[in-house]
Amino acid sequence: MVSQALLLLLGTATTLASELSFPPPTTLASNGYANWGAGTWPPASVGVPLVPQTADSEILSLISQIDPARMEHTIRTLVNFGTRHTASTTTSLTRGIGAARKWLLKEMQEYAKPANGMIKVSMPCYFQPAEPENGLPIGVDICNVQAEIKGTVDPNRTIVYTGHYDSRRINGSDYENDAPGADDNASAVSIALEMVRILGLSVAKNQPAASIIISAVAGEEQGLYGSTFLANTLKNASVNVEADFNNDIVGTGSNAPFNKLNQHTIRIFSGGTDILDLPEATIDEIITTGYQDDTPSRNLARFIQEVNAGAAHTTEMEVAILYKTDRFDRGGDHEPFLEVGFPAVRFTESNENFFHQHQDPREENGVVFGDNIEFVDFDYTARVGKVNMLGMLSMANAPDLPKNFTYVPLYGFLASDEQAPVASLDNVVMFNWNTEPKDPLLDHFEIVWRSMSSQQWTHTLDVGTVSTATLDISRDNAVFGLRAVGKDGKKSPAVLALPDSF
Ligand SMILES: *[C@@H]1O[C@H](CO)[C@@H](O)[C@H](O)[C@H]1NC(C)=O
Ligand SMILES: *[C@@H]1O[C@H](CO)[C@@H](O)[C@H](O)[C@H]1NC(C)=O
Ligand SMILES: *[C@@H]1O[C@H](CO)[C@@H](O)[C@H](O)[C@H]1NC(C)=O
Ligand SMILES: *[C@@H]1O[C@H](CO)[C@@H](O)[C@H](O)[C@H]1NC(C)=O
Ligand SMILES: CC(=O)N[C@@H]1CO[C@H](CO)[C@@H](O)[C@@H]1O
Fold first, then answer.
1. How high is the pLDDT of residue 274?
2. 431 alpha carbon to ligand 5 midpoint, in Å?
3. Is the CB of 427 under 6 A from ligand 1?
4. Which of 10, 52, 198, 496 makes an SS bond possible with 294, Cβ 3.0 to 4.6 Å?
5. pLDDT of residue 132
6. Which of the listed residues 232, 238, 241, 342 should we mutate to test ligand 2's pocket, taking the one with most ligand atoms within 8 A of CB?
7. What angle do CA 195, 386, 167 make, to 5 degrees?
């Protein structure tokens, strides 16, 4: 079903492919992007069409500093370590994963210097015993290289970026021969370094309201070791992780067919509840409420798509949301975050070329195999970096997600006793939510809604600072979310309305 949806999306867009211009007309239609789904029903006069929020000039200026030439330098340097297999040498200064992580650490420290201590760079490690069945023939240190920025308003609230720096060959246990790993996934690490560089120069003036962690993680190809270590460390420390932006294979959009469109499209995979090991009663409840389409990860993906639509003139990208955790039989570093209950999404290029992932570098009958640098399009990776940085900074400076947005039972329902208020016996919906504790960034709340056939929120209603609202629309005919709007207009991702029993 999902691949059909993708085909449909690409199919619709191919009419544009020959004359693609930016901003993309579909994302900036005056009625928002309601036309991305068949969202014309139910008819209702509740709220106004949602127009994508726009980023402020400061954020636009920061993301514009992402430099494809520096990304090329990062990817070239990483490829030149020959292999970054998790079990490769750690004693050489020029080859293997040890040399790669030492270089990454030095780069991040250098980039953090202008921030005068406001960016903390570290390399947390743990010892991972051998797991030969996963391609780890010997025990090794797994080390993540990361930069942390403390938030000014709510430092506990944390937005994470992950991209893995290890690489592999077809034989996942072969830690000696060359594995360039340019697209998979030096491309994602080049985004991490660019973000640290730009934040290093700007964070003293623009410290975000929430905390940011940017991590180049290790051991992805064998067992998601580095990302599991990071997710569990944050979970154990009770950190409120509200997003993991995981990037993996973001090196090119140049694959035919439809390559012109692919060059300006990034896929975001956002999981349902399938990854969670839930009791049957909870699964029943999830299916009854429609929660499977509106997990926090999916609303994170919608948020990224929306802020990107509002800044498409700068990112020159479209965001394609996929309702699944990852591609078939593939996985990545967002999964350990999902497993401990943190919202997480995966960014991956629009149309992968499997000749250039995991392949041993070689030529057969004139066809070049291998994840080589010549197949990376640095401008594409830079555009993907802009979408990430825009999403992370927008979220880190918006008010926190609203809490406890619930349906009031027996509203929009038949009478169950003689005292039922007449006003409740109608196709209406009533909600409650918490207004305490007060978020200093908050200006007001807004309810967003969409038809069930629309992927993106299509309508919005300003409800001020109250903690309850009743709308003239059946609770059964639409999906409802609540988001917090900041004094500077920045909006949080939406949270889904749930029954109070959930
Ligand atoms: C894969 O590489 C490992 C380590 O070099 C080696 O021991 C093993 O024999 C290789 N497997 C195959 C199928 O070549
Ligand atoms: C997290 O806590 C669990 C349970 O105490 C422990 O087994 C695990 O090693 C911890 N993980 C990390 C990365 O701190
Ligand atoms: C951070 O947030 C988490 C999740 O909301 C919470 O459990 C934890 O107590 C908070 N920690 C601090 C220091 O406020
Ligand atoms: C959430 O709201 C419901 C009613 O709307 C209330 O009974 C419950 O106590 C609230 N929960 C929290 C954690 O505030
Ligand atoms: C490719 C990718 O998705 N990233 C990491 C990187 O390498 C391989 C490719 O699938 C994956 O197994 C892994 O999840």
1. 65
2. 42
3. no
4. 496
5. 93
6. 232
7. 65
Average pLDDT over residues 200-226: 95
Average confidence (pLDDT) over 425-441: 94
Q: 403 CB under 6 A from ligand 3?
A: no
Q: Are 441 and 486 in contact (CB under 8 A)?
A: yes
Q: Which ligand is nearest to the CA of 498?
A: 4
CA–centroid distance, 12 to ligand 5, in Å, is 29
Q: Evaluate: CB of 173 within 6 angstroms of ligand 1.
A: yes
CA–CA distance, 383 with 265 (Å, rounded to integer): 9
Q: Give per-residue pLDDT as tens, 101-128.
A: 999 999 999 999 999 999 999 999 999 9
Q: Is 171 in the pocket of ligand 1 (CB under 6 A)?
A: yes
Q: Which atom of ligand 2 is nearest to the CA of 236?
A: 1
Average predicted confidence (pLDDT) for the chain? 88
What CATH number belongs to 31-56+401-499? 2.60.40.10
Residue 417 has pLDDT above 90, yes or no: no
3-class secondary-structure state, position 383: helix
Domain segments of the chain: what residues? 31-56+401-499, 65-246+301-316+354-397
Please give the CATH number for the structural domain made up of 65-246+301-316+354-397.
3.40.630.10
Q: In what order do the strands lie in the sheet with 119-122?
A: 119-122, 145-149, 210-217, 154-164, 240-247, 344-349, 265-270, 318-322
CA gap 255, 471 in Å, rounded = 47
Q: Which ligand is nearest to the CA of 409?
A: 4
Determine the average pLDDT of the residues in 402-409. 93
Closest atom, ligand 3, to C-alpha of 239: 1
CB 96 within 8 A of CB 81: yes
Closest by CA to 321, choosing from 498, 224, 455, 190, is 455
Counting ligands in written order, which one lies closest to the CA of residue 251?
Answer: 5
* Per-residue pLDDT tens over the stretch 18-35: 344 554 444 444 555 444
Q: Is 65-246+301-316+354-397 the same fold as 31-56+401-499?
A: no
In the chain, the percentage of residues whose pLDDT exceeds 90 is: 68
Residue 319 C-alpha to ligand 3 middle, in angstroms? 31
| Residue of 314, 268, 301, 321 whose CA lies nearest to 24 | 314
Atom of ligand 1 nearest to the CA of 137: 4
Instruction: Determine the average pLDDT of the residues in 58-82.
Output: 96
Q: What is the DSSP letter of 43?
A: -
pLDDT per residue as tens digits for the range 471-488: 999 999 999 999 999 999
